[in-house]
Specification:
This protein is α+β, with helices and mostly antiparallel strands. The protein is about 20% helix and about 35% strand. The longest helix is centred in the last third of the chain and has 30 residues.
Length: about 575
């Protein structure tokens, strides 16, 4: 659609130009329109695809309706609405002017941003996405926010800012290149300095302040007190055990803390949280006297035991020896795991040292106290060999209860170098109960006690003076040992080998030699037998001397009887 500014004048192009310029002046214009100018116009028609705009030129312009449509798809103009548009071209192929509402808006925004820069003003925008080196921000036009200007501290996850609206400071502006650089950090630092001044007025040791968790590390949490950060160390968070600060806090949490130390020169602040609360150990001995049953959670396991938290800040140690009456535990992890709920008894408590000794086995009756009644001294038990050691064998009495047969209690007479010569694991054995030590949890057994000690009746079987045959088991410098019964040996001293002096017993006897000996002494308590070989050499002579002695004693007796008879007469 073309519009004739004055239909009564139908002169040449020069007349038309003069009239058009005059018309523009009447509308407030200052001269002929140039491409790239912002001009004011009026919407004269709205169609499905276009909005027709009259800017007072010789022809009207069509602008795509999309430039007048909001994000919801609604057309925002109607006939008669005033609009500001950009004149892109004074005439296209169809003879109409080329206009743009969208480009006009952007030019206006650039002008506004330029003015804001000159006035050092703040602009608002929405972060719309990530780009290389930072973020893209929509402030009406696209602007760049470097990663270093997002926050005061370096930010690892920039995605958390996308779709959020913030205020920014323009730190670089170039309209020709279409380049705008923003900073949020500058504004935050300014705000922080203002807050810092107020915070420093109240910052002193012992002061209780409110803050916000700003950052979490393995060793603690940084708390923003308002313009100045303080460190809340992990050891000052709770009287209880904490593995990581994230167990108690999230970034952004509000906390109430106490100032422990403040260094104004370095602006370093140490904070505490647990110090606001009472130390739970102060009255722990009143709350947990010895003998008290408690429930708690296993928080740590070591080689020597497990630490159990019975309340926040109060932990007790269950030593591995206090976990079971009968099981020999190599490591606490065999019966416990971190996080497990357990029941225990307080065995000892020292609030000053912050120590509590706990026992789990004390929850149940001590099975060792029942063993004395169940297995009286002298009773016979049967069981399997559970272990063989250098000093004896362990025999299973009950589940978790083993009895020890010491090597010295295996045989009355047999010399045993190692119990493994006679027994192996799994062998079924019979033994006698010798002793039960409840306090030290020791169960003593004996195998040799099942039969009579052959030494006790040796003097009856082989009285002193008996002649026996035996085998030489060992020859020494002082004599020879001879086995006279299985397991029973006697010593033939070097002086009892021969009548003549013997310098070396090996000249007379040798190992394994069968010899005849005479028993000359038996010491039952010390289990010693004295033997003699030379006594057998004079055995006949001794008998004859004995015969003469008895004859002489008889003659004396008869002579005495005769003399007594004569005296009576």
């Amino acid at each position: 659609m073309q519009q004739n500014l004055n239909p009564q004048l139908d002169g040449g192009d020069e007349d038309f130009a003069s009239l058009f310029e005059a018309s523009l002046k009447e509308r407030g214009g200052e001269g002929i329109l140039k491409e790239g100018d912002l001009v004011k116009g009026t919407v004269v028609q709205v169609t499905k695809d276009y909005a027709v705009v009259d800017i007072g030129y010789k022809s009207e312009g069509q602008i795509p309706i999309s430039e007048f449509t909001n994000p919801r798809g609604e057309v925002t103009v109607k006939d008669g609405d005033p609009v500001e548009v950009l004149l892109e071209s004074r005439e296209n192929d169809t003879g109409m002017v080329v206009l743009s509402k969208e480009k006009a808006d952007k030019m206006r925004i650039w002008d506004e941003i330029s003015a804001a820069c000159e006035r050092d003003e703040i602009v608002k925008g929405v972060i719309v996405g990530r780009v290389k080196g930072g973020l893209s921000v929509d402030i009406g036009v696209k602007a760049f926010l470097p990663g270093s200007q997002v926050d005061i501290r370096p930010v690892r996850n920039l995605d958390q800012y996308i779709s959020k609206e913030f205020e920014f400071k323009v730190i670089k502006f170039n309209k020709k290149r279409g380049n705008i650089v923003l900073s949020r950090r500058v504004l935050l630092e300014k705000q922080r300095e203002e807050l810092k001044k107020e915070t420093l007025k109240n910052l002193k040791e012992g002061a209780v302040l409110k803050g916000v968790v700003k950052n979490l590390t393995d060793y603690g949490a940084f708390i923003d007190l308002g313009g100045i950060d303080g460190l809340l160390h992990i050891t000052d968070m709770s009287w209880g055990r904490i593995g990581h600060p994230s167990e108690m806090f999230n970034v952004g949490d509000e906390v109430r803390v106490v100032v422990l130390k403040f260094d104004p020169a370095q602006e370093r602040v140490s904070l505490g949280l647990k110090q606001i609360q009472e130390d739970p150990w102060h009255r722990a001995d009143e709350k947990y006297p010895v003998g008290t049953r408690v429930r708690g959670r296993v928080v740590s396991i070591t080689d020597y035991g497990a630490f159990v938290e019975i309340e926040q800040g109060v932990e007790g140690l269950v030593h591995v020896s206090e976990m079971s009456w009968t099981k020999r535990l190599k490591h606490p992890s065999k019966v416990l795991e971190v996080g497990q709920e357990v029941e225990a008894v307080v065995l000892d408590i020292d609030p000053k040292a912050k120590r509590i000794a706990l026992g789990m086995k004390q929850i149940e009756a001590n099975p060792w106290t029942l063993l004395e009644d169940k297995y009286p001294i002298g009773s016979i038990i049967k069981g399997q060999v559970r272990n063989v050691t250098d000093f004896g064998i362990f025999v299973g009495v009950e589940e978790g209860v083993d009895g020890l047969v010491h090597v010295s209690d295996i045989s009355w007479t047999q010399r045993i170098k190692h119990p493994g010569e006679l027994y192996k694991k799994g062998d079924e054995v019979e033994a006698m109960v010798l002793n039960i030590d409840v306090e030290n949890e020791r169960f003593s057994l004996g195998i040799k006690q099942l039969s009579q000690d052959p030494w006790e009746t040796l003097s009856e079987r082989l009285p002193v003076g008996s002649k026996v045959n035996g085998k030489v088991t060992k020859v020494t410098d002082f004599g020879a040992f001879v086995e006279i019964e299985p397991g029973i040996e006697g010593l033939v001293h070097v002086s009892e080998l021969k009548d003549e002096r013997v310098e070396n017993p090996r000249d007379v006897v040798s190992d394994g030699q069968e010899v005849a000996v005479k028993i000359i002494d038996i010491n039952t308590p010390d289990r010693k037998v004295a033997l003699s070989m030379k006594a057998l050499l004079h055995e006949g002579e001794d008998d004859y001397r004995e015969y003469l002695r008895k004859q002489a004693e008889g003659s004396k007796a008869r002579l005495g009887d005769v003399m007594a008879s004569k005296l009576r007469r």
